[in-house]
Design the sequence.
């Protein structure tokens, strides 16, 4: 779990790319995103799956020198099995599992165990009805506890959850001003107290004029404790990585909390610091300081 959490803080903005794109190598060598997901699910059609797998294999056979953490979003347990059978698959960091719930979790587990390859990381995505039922999320978490692979984070599929509610988010509200906020709250309480991290949902508007709203949403992501967010366009990457990274003043404050942890309370930078309730946050900040 520890190594998986360290990877979480290196993910930064996770940029999704359709796996059928012909220039994947060039895009991977030039991206500034902390992580990239090659998508074989919603970003492509059913009839394009075979072409996407061939494109991925071709990319990995001449794997370029890249700085980003590379994942593949497997469309189904069968596609995951097909990917795991590629001789070149060891080049990637891991897989994103879409729409995970009780209907498919054991199939994904079986695909991993049958492959005999457990060095990969998995990022399961919560984007079905289970997100609106806290008890079912807890039951799902207990199953995933038995997986042999590292879990850097659970991803929250905001648009799929909106789709379940027959809603399309308008371009003047953040995700926290929609009913999906309930699902976000459920995921936080079901997973984070038990050692799992979470990724903030995508912001689907990509024009320059929408960047102020993205910034507002990112500030709320930070308030909710997220340090990774899905990106669907390179224009979003710098802002996501700037706002969701820890700042120098936060690192300095964390050091002071550790230094004064024997005190009940002290004042610093105009705020009350109570080490007994802030110590976990401080340890987290310092454990990842210098991670880049």
Sequence:
């Amino acid at each position: 779990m520890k190594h998986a959490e360290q990877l979480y803080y290196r993910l930064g903005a996770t940029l999704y790319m359709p796996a059928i794109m012909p220039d994947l190598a060039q895009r991977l060598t030039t991206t500034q995103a902390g992580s990239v997901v090659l998508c074989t699910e919603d970003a492509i059609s059913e009839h394009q799956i075979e072409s996407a797998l061939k494109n991925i294999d071709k990319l990995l056979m001449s794997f370029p020198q890249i700085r980003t953490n590379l994942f593949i979003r497997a469309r189904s347990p069968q596609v995951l099995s097909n990917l795991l059978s590629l001789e070149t698959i060891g080049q990637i960091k891991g897989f994103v599992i879409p729409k995970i719930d009780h209907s498919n979790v054991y199939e994904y587990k079986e695909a991993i165990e049958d492959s005999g390859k457990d060095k990969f990381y998995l990022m399961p995505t919560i984007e079905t009805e289970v997100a609106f039922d806290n008890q079912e999320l807890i039951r799902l978490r207990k199953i995933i506890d038995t997986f042999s692979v590292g879990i850097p984070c659970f991803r929250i599929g905001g648009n799929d959850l909106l789709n379940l509610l027959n809603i399309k988010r308008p371009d003047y509200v953040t995700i926290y001003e929609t009913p999906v906020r309930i699902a976000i709250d459920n995921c936080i309480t079901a997973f984070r107290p038990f050692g799992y991290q979470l990724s903030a949902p995508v912001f689907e508007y990509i024009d320059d004029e929408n960047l102020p709203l993205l910034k507002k949403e990112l500030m709320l992501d930070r308030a909710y404790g997220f340090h990774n967010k899905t990106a669907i366009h390179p224009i979003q990457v710098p802002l996501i990585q700037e706002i969701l990274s820890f700042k120098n003043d936060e690192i300095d404050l964390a050091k002071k909390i550790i230094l004064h942890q024997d005190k009940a309370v002290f004042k610093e930078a105009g705020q009350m610091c109570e080490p007994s309730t802030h110590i976990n946050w401080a340890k987290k900040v310092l454990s990842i300081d210098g991670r880049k």
In short: Residues 246-292 form one domain. The chain is about 40% helix and 15% strand. Residues 118 and 148 are 6 Å apart (CA to CA).
